[in-house]
Write a structure and sequence with these properties.
Blueprint (H helix, E strand, L loop, with lengths): L31 E4 L1 H7 L7 H13 L4 E5 L5 H12 L8 E7 L2 H10 L5 E9 L2 H8 L3 H21 L4 E9 L6 H15 L7 E7 L6 H14 L6 E7 L6 H10 L4 E4 L13 H10 L11 H12 L20 H13 L34 H12 L5 H18 L5 H12 L6 E11 L2 E10 L2 E9 L2 H13 L3 E11 L6 E10 L2 E9 L2 H23 L1
Parallel strand pairs: 1-2, 1-8, 2-3, 3-4, 4-5, 5-6, 6-7, 7-8
Antiparallel strand pairs: 9-10, 10-11, 12-13, 13-14
Length: 556
C-alpha cells in the first residue's frame, strides 16, 4: 500500500484581503539587499567554512556591492567570533558597509554578541525567537503571552547593551521566526511589542524581518501576509520591513518579489540560493530579474564566473548548469528553431535600441558571457544552429538551400557520435562535404577576357593525372566555365543558384563561393574559398562536379 497520502496535510490558513494593493504595483527600484551567506548559508553546509574561506567570500560580497552582510552568530561559534574580530580589528569593513550578527533572545548570548562587536563603527544586531503555532505549542510549551514576553525581553536586553557601548551606531533587527506560519494578527502583536521597547523614529529606524523560515504557501499568500503586516504594524514610517524567504516550494524568489510589491523594503538572501534544505532566496536571481526589466539592481553581477568560482570554492556546493541567469547552459540553444530565431534577431539588433532577441532575455555579454555559449549543436539542432556556428566561428555564411542539406549531415554525425557536435567538427564536416579540392578535377589556373560584351575563359584543369585545357564563353566567368565544361564533358549543366561573400578583412580576406548546379537533371552543391573571387567561384563549380562524380563511383 502506498504511503503517498495527501490527506495528512492541510493548506496554510489565509486571511481575507479584499482590498489588497500589491497586484497593481510594479518594482521600480531595487530593495536593500542583505547577504546572509556567512551565517545562514554557512550553517547549512556539510563542512562549515573556515575563517579563510569566510574572508574570501566576504571580499566577494563587498566587491559586488552588498552593503549589509550578516557575518555570523558570534555568541554561539568561536570561528564566527574570531571572524567578526578580524573584520573589526583589521579594519576590513568599508565605510559604506554594515555588518550584521544574529543572536537568540538570551541574556548571556546577547552580552557575548556585543562583546564581539566591540569597536565596530556601525552594526546591526539581529535578535529573534520563534512565534509560529507549532513552535509555541510543541517546542516551547508556551502560550501567546509567554512567547511575546521572550521577544520583549530580548528587545530590552539589546537596548540595555547598546547603552553600554555608545561609540557604535547600533541598528536593531527583530525576526518573528516562522512568521509565515504565525497567525497574522499575532505576528503584528509581537512585533508591535518589540517596537514599543525600541521606540524607533523615522531618523533612526529599526528593522523588522519577516521570515518564511519554511516556505509553506504560494507566493501570493505570503504577499498578502506582508501587506497585512505593513498596514497594521505600529510606527510604519520608523521601521524597515525586511523579508527572508526560503525555497521549500521552489518559490523563494517569487515570494520575495511579491513581498516587495506588498511593501517590504529589504530582502535577505544568499548568493546562488545556498541555505538549509532547498536553500535561501537567491540574491543573484532576484537582482538579475530586476536587471532584465530595466531596473538597476545596485549590485555588480557582470562577472558571474568569478562569483561561481569563489562560491564553489568556499561552500563546496556546485552550481547547476541550468541555474537561472548564470548557469553554464542558460544562454545555450540546441533547438533548431530557437537557433534560427536567435541568429536572425542578432543580425537585426542595433546597439542603440532596447534588447529584442528571441530566447535571450538579456544580452549575455552584459555578464561576461560570449555568443560562444549561445548556440551549440546536437541532434535536435537545425540549420539555424549550424549557420550560427559557421558564421560566428569560421566566417562562413552558406545560403539557405545549402544549410538545409548540411544540417542533416550534422544531425547524422551527432546521432552517430551521441551528443553535441563541436565547432571544429562542424567546419570539418562542411569542408569534407562541399569543398572537394582533392579531385577528381582540380583548377590549376585560368585566363579570362572580355570581348564584345562576352566573357571568354581558358581554364587549366588537372584530371586523372593529366592537365586539360577547357575553353568556353558566356555572360560572366561562371557562365563561360559552364559552357567550357559542357563542351569538354558532354554533360548537361546549369547553375540554379550562386552566392559569395568575403571572409575576413584587408589583405588577408578570402572569397567564399557557394554554387547549386543542375547536372543531368539532378541538383548538387559545392563550395570553395580562394583569395580570388573568380577562382573561388570556379573551384566551387568543380567541387560540385567532383561530388557528383564521386557519388557515381560510390553508387557503382
Amino acid at each position: 500500500m502506498s504511503r503517498f497520502d495527501h490527506r495528512k496535510y492541510r493548506p496554510v490558513p489565509t486571511w481575507p484581503m479584499p482590498n489588497r494593493r500589491w497586484p497593481d504595483r510594479t518594482i521600480r527600484e531595487a530593495p536593500i539587499w542583505a547577504s546572509v551567506d556567512l551565517r545562514d548559508g554557512n550553517q547549512a553546509l556539510i563542512e562549515p567554512m573556515s575563517v579563510e574561506q569566510k574572508r574570501r567570500l566576504w571580499e566577494l560580497l563587498v566587491k559586488i556591492g552588498l552593503k549589509e552582510i550578516e557575518v555570523g552568530f558570534p555568541a554561539a561559534s568561536r570561528p564566527d567570533y574570531d571572524f567578526v574580530r578580524w573584520l573589526i580589528e583589521g579594519d576590513h569593513i568599508p565605510e559604506d558597509v554594515t555588518i550584521q550578527v544574529l543572536v537568540q533572545a538570551r541574556e548571556d548570548l546577547i552580552r557575548r554578541t556585543f562583546e564581539a562587536l566591540r569597536g565596530a563603527r556601525r552594526a546591526i544586531v539581529h535578535v529573534y525567537n520563534s512565534t509560529s503555532t507549532v513552535q509555541r505549542e510543541r517546542v516551547f510549551g508556551a502560550d501567546r503571552e509567554g512567547v511575546k514576553a521572550i521577544a520583549v525581553r530580548g528587545a530590552r536586553l539589546l537596548l540595555a547593551e547598546a547603552e553600554r557601548h555608545p561609540d557604535t551606531e547600533w541598528v536593531f533587527q527583530y525576526s518573528p521566526e516562522s512568521f509565515s506560519n504565525t497567525e497574522w494578527d499575532y505576528a503584528v502583536e509581537v512585533c508591535n511589542a518589540v517596537i514599543d521597547v525600541w521606540q524607533p523614529t523615522p531618523e533612526r529606524r529599526c528593522i523588522i524581518n519577516l521570515p518564511a523560515t519554511v516556505e509553506s504557501s504560494t507566493p501570493n499568500v505570503f504577499a498578502d501576509q506582508v501587506e497585512y503586516f505593513c498596514t497594521h504594524v505600529d510606527r510604519r514610517d520608523s521601521i524597515v520591513v525586511s523579508v527572508h524567504t526560503h525555497n521549500d516550494r521552489g518559490c523563494a524568489v517569487a515570494a520575495a518579489e511579491l513581498a516587495v510589491l506588498a511593501g517590504a523594503e529589504r530582502v535577505e538572501g544568499t548568493l546562488l540560493g545556498n541555505g538549509e534544505r532547498t536553500g535561501n532566496m537567491d540574491l543573484v536571481t532576484m537582482a538579475m530579474n530586476l536587471y532584465s526589466q530595466g531596473v538597476d539592481p545596485k549590485l555588480d553581477l557582470s562577472r558571474p564566473d568569478e562569483i561561481i568560482a569563489v562560491y564553489t570554492s568556499c561552500t563546496g556546493m556546485p552550481v547547476h548548469p541550468r541555474h537561472p541567469w548564470v548557469g553554464e547552459l542558460v544562454y545555450t540553444a540546441f533547438s533548431g528553431s530557437h537557433q534560427d530565431a536567435i541568429r536572425k534577431c542578432l543580425k537585426q539588433q542595433r546597439p542603440d535600441e532596447p534588447w529584442q532577441v528571441a530566447y535571450l532575455p538579456i544580452d549575455p555579454r552584459d555578464i561576461g558571457r560570449t555568443y560562444q555559449e549561445v548556440v551549440r549543436v546536437n541532434s535536435q539542432s537545425g540549420k539555424g544552429g549550424v549557420a550560427f556556428v559557421l558564421e560566428r566561428d569560421h566566417g562562413l555564411s552558406p545560403p539557405r538551400w545549402m544549410l538545409v542539406e548540411f544540417a542533416q549531415v550534422v544531425q547524422r554525425a551527432s546521432e552517430e557520435q551521441g551528443g553535441e557536435v563541436d565547432s571544429a567538427t562542424i567546419r570539418r564536416l562542411f569542408f569534407d562535404h562541399y569543398v572537394r579540392t582533392e579531385g577528381p578535377a582540380v583548377l590549376l589556373g585560368y585566363q579570362l577576357e572580355r570581348l564584345a560584351g562576352r566573357d571568354r575563359i581558358r581554364a587549366r584543369i588537372a584530371q586523372e593525372g593529366r592537365e586539360v585545357v577547357l575553353a568556353g564563353e558566356g555572360e560572366g566567368a561562371i557562365s563561360a566555365f559552364v559552357d567550357a565544361w559542357q563542351k569538354y564533358s558532354g554533360q548537361t549543366l546549369s547553375v540554379v543558384d550562386y552566392a559569395e561573400h568575403a571572409v575576413g578583412e584587408g589583405t588577408d580576406a578570402e572569397a567564399a563561393a557557394y554554387v547549386l548546379l543542375n547536372l543531368n537533371g539532378a541538383r548538387v552543391a559545392g563550395a570553395a574559398l580562394d583569395r580570388d573571387t573568380v577562382g573561388a567561384s570556379l573551384s566551387a563549380l568543380l567541387a560540385a562536379l567532383n561530388r557528383a562524380a564521386l557519388a557515381e563511383v560510390e553508387a557503382a
